Amino acid sequence: MNTLIQKVTNNIIERSKPYREVYLGRIADADSRGVHRSALGCSNLAHGFAACSAGDKALLSEDVVPNIAIVSAYNDMLSAHQPFEAFPKIIKQALHEAGATGQFAGGVPAMCDGVTQSQPGMELSLFSRDVIAQATAIALSHNMFDGALYLGVCDKIVPGLMIGALTFGHLPAVFVPGGPMPSGISNEVKVKVRQDFAQGKVDEKTLLLSESGSYHSPGTCTFYGTANSNQMMMEIMGLHLPGSSFVIANTPLRDELTKAASKQVLSLIDTETSSMGIGKMLDEKSFVNAIIGLLTTGGSSNHTLHLVAMARAAGIVINWQDFHDLSQVIPLLTKLYPNGSADVNHFHNAGGMPVVIDQLLENGLIHDDVKTIMGEGLSAYTSMPKLKGDAGTEKLKWKKKKYKEENKNIVSTVAEPFSHHGGLTILDGNIGRSVIKTSALKPEHHLIEAPAEVFNSQEALQEAYQRGELNKDFVAVVRYQGPKSNGMPELHGLLPALGSLQDEGFKIAIITDGRMSGASGKVASAIHMTPEASEGGVIAEIEQGDMIRLDVENSTVELLVHPTELAKRKIVPPDLSGNRFAMGRELFSSLRGNVSGAEEGASIFNLPGEESA
C-alpha cells in the first residue's frame, strides 16, 4: 500500500474515533434486537402486510424468511430513473425465487439538475439530498425489514439514499443502478452548439435539437458528471455488483443484474447471529477508496461535498485536505467527458471500472482489505458481467478484465497515466478555501492573474456578457451562492459564455461560493469557497477591479489587496429576499438557517453523538 494513502487513512481513523465509536455502538444495539417484525404487535404487523399476497402474509407472519425493503427514486421525468418503474416486479420475483419476500417500502424525491439548471428550482437541489435521506429513514421506519435495496442514480439522490441507509446501518444493503442511455451526439458537438447559441450564432430551435440529440432516451445521461460519478463510487465501495454500473438500461443483461443484486442482499443476512449491515461493511478505508476512485477517474467536484456528508453519517470525518493529499499520488487513469471525448458507454466497452480497479490494486493505490457485498476484498471487482448461453436461457457470468492497448485513449495504466495528479486540488488563500477541478483544465489555464468582475448572481454575469462588457481578461467573482445564501445552486449557466470568451483568447477564471456542474472544468473555477459570503467570508469584500491571482500549481487563490485596505471596507449584502420564496423555496428556510459549511458537507445533519436535542 502506498505510504501516503495509508497515512491519510490513519489520520481519518484517528480523527473519527469518538464519532465512529458512537455510531458502531448504535448499530450494534439495533442489530442485537434481531429481526424487527418480531417486535411488532399483531395490529402493527397486520397493517404491515395487509396489501401482500396470501403466500407472503403467511411467510411474514411466521417471521422465518427475510423481508427486503425496496427504496426507490423512480419517476418518469428523469431519464435516469424511468427504468426503475419495472424494477420492483423484477426484484420481488427474484426474491420469491430465493425464498424471501420484498416490499416497496417507499419512494424518495428525485429532481433533475439538467432541468433546473439556471432556474429557481436549482436552489432546492443540494437540500434535496438531505430530504432524500429523511425520506429513506421514513421508508425504513416500519421495522419490517431484514435488508434493503436502494434504487437511485443521479446527483443528490445516491448520496441521500446512502445517508439514509447508513442511519439504518444494521441493515444489509445493495445499491441497484439503472444504467446509462445509449450514446447520442458527441459531447464536442453539444458544447459547440451551446457556445454558438450564447454568441447568438444559432437559434433556440437548433439548440433544442442538439440537446435532444444528446439526452434522447431512458437511462442516465452519458457524460461523466455527478450521476455517473455516483455509480463509479458505489462500485468501487463494493455496493454494486461488479462491473454493473454502466450496463445500458433496459437490456437483458441489465435485468439479469437486477435479479442478481436482489438475491445478493440475502447473502448478507444472518438470522442466527449478526448480519453484515452497511454500517459495519463500510469503514474509513471504504471512503478513502471512494475518494481514490473520484480522483483517478476525474469525477465530479460535487463529491467534495457529498462524500463528506455521506461519511459523517457513519461517524467518519473526512475533509478537503484528504482529497488534496490523495490527489498527489493518485494518477488520472480515464479520459471521459468533460476531461476527454469519450462517454461512459465508451468507457464501459473499454473495460470500465474493472480495468481501473485492477490497475489500482496492482500498484498498491487502493485498499484491498475492505468488505463488499461480494465478500472480502476487491478482487471480484476486476471482472465484467456478461450473459452466456442461448436466447432465453442465458446465465449471468463474470470475466476478468485487463488493460488493452487499443483502449489507451480512454483508459490508461498507472505506468503511463493521463496525469500523475488526481483530478482535484484544494486552493487556500486570503479569500478562503475552495475546490478546483483540474482534470479538464489545460496547463495554460493553471495560472490566472486578472482584475475582478463582481456579480451577486449568475444572471447578472450573463447580462454583462450579452452587453459585450466582458471581452477582456478577468476573474468572475460570483458570490452569495453558498448554502446559507440560496442553497448553493450549480452555476452551469456561466460556462457557455465564459467558455466562449476563453476560446477567443481571454484569460478567464471563476471564484464562487456556489457549485459548478459535475460536467464542468474547462474554465479555471475556484468553487465551494468557504467561508461563504453570507457568513462574512472575504469573498463578500471583493470589489470591482481588485486583482486576483489563481495559481493551481501552488494551490493558492489570493486577493491582491493590502489587509489595511480590506479592513476599511464595509460588507453590504445584496437583497436576497427574492431567493426566499416561489418554486417551493419558502419551505426550505429552516435548512438554509441550519446548514453547515461546504467543507463539512453543506449538510443539516450532525455527527453521531453531536445531535442537537
UniProtKB/TrEMBL annotation:
<comment type="similarity">
    <text>Belongs to the IlvD/Edd family.</text>
</comment>
<dbReference type="GO" id="GO:0005829">
    <property type="term" value="C:cytosol"/>
</dbReference>
<feature type="domain" description="Dihydroxy-acid/6-phosphogluconate dehydratase N-terminal">
    <location>
        <begin position="66"/>
        <end position="379"/>
    </location>
</feature>
<keyword id="KW-0408">Iron</keyword>
<dbReference type="InterPro" id="IPR004786">
    <property type="entry name" value="6-phosphgluc_deHydtase"/>
</dbReference>
<keyword id="KW-0479">Metal-binding</keyword>
<keyword id="KW-0119">Carbohydrate metabolism</keyword>
<comment type="pathway">
    <text>Carbohydrate metabolism; Entner-Doudoroff pathway.</text>
</comment>
<dbReference type="Pfam" id="PF00920">
    <property type="entry name" value="ILVD_EDD_N"/>
</dbReference>
<dbReference type="InterPro" id="IPR042096">
    <property type="entry name" value="Dihydro-acid_dehy_C"/>
</dbReference>
<dbReference type="GO" id="GO:0051539">
    <property type="term" value="F:4 iron, 4 sulfur cluster binding"/>
</dbReference>
<feature type="domain" description="Dihydroxy-acid/6-phosphogluconate dehydratase C-terminal">
    <location>
        <begin position="410"/>
        <end position="602"/>
    </location>
</feature>
<dbReference type="GO" id="GO:0009255">
    <property type="term" value="P:Entner-Doudoroff pathway through 6-phosphogluconate"/>
</dbReference>
<dbReference type="GO" id="GO:0004456">
    <property type="term" value="F:phosphogluconate dehydratase activity"/>
</dbReference>
<dbReference type="InterPro" id="IPR020558">
    <property type="entry name" value="DiOHA_6PGluconate_deHydtase_CS"/>
</dbReference>
<protein>
    <recommendedName>
        <fullName>Phosphogluconate dehydratase</fullName>
        <ecNumber>4.2.1.12</ecNumber>
    </recommendedName>
</protein>
<keyword id="KW-0456">Lyase</keyword>
<dbReference type="Pfam" id="PF24877">
    <property type="entry name" value="ILV_EDD_C"/>
</dbReference>
<dbReference type="InterPro" id="IPR000581">
    <property type="entry name" value="ILV_EDD_N"/>
</dbReference>
<keyword id="KW-0311">Gluconate utilization</keyword>
<dbReference type="InterPro" id="IPR037237">
    <property type="entry name" value="IlvD/EDD_N"/>
</dbReference>
<feature type="binding site">
    <location>
        <position position="154"/>
    </location>
    <ligand>
        <name>[4Fe-4S] cluster</name>
    </ligand>
</feature>
<keyword id="KW-0411">Iron-sulfur</keyword>
<dbReference type="InterPro" id="IPR056740">
    <property type="entry name" value="ILV_EDD_C"/>
</dbReference>
<dbReference type="GO" id="GO:0019521">
    <property type="term" value="P:D-gluconate metabolic process"/>
</dbReference>
<keyword id="KW-0004">4Fe-4S</keyword>
<dbReference type="GO" id="GO:0046872">
    <property type="term" value="F:metal ion binding"/>
</dbReference>
<comment type="function">
    <text>Catalyzes the dehydration of 6-phospho-D-gluconate to 2-dehydro-3-deoxy-6-phospho-D-gluconate.</text>
</comment>
<feature type="binding site">
    <location>
        <position position="221"/>
    </location>
    <ligand>
        <name>[4Fe-4S] cluster</name>
    </ligand>
</feature>
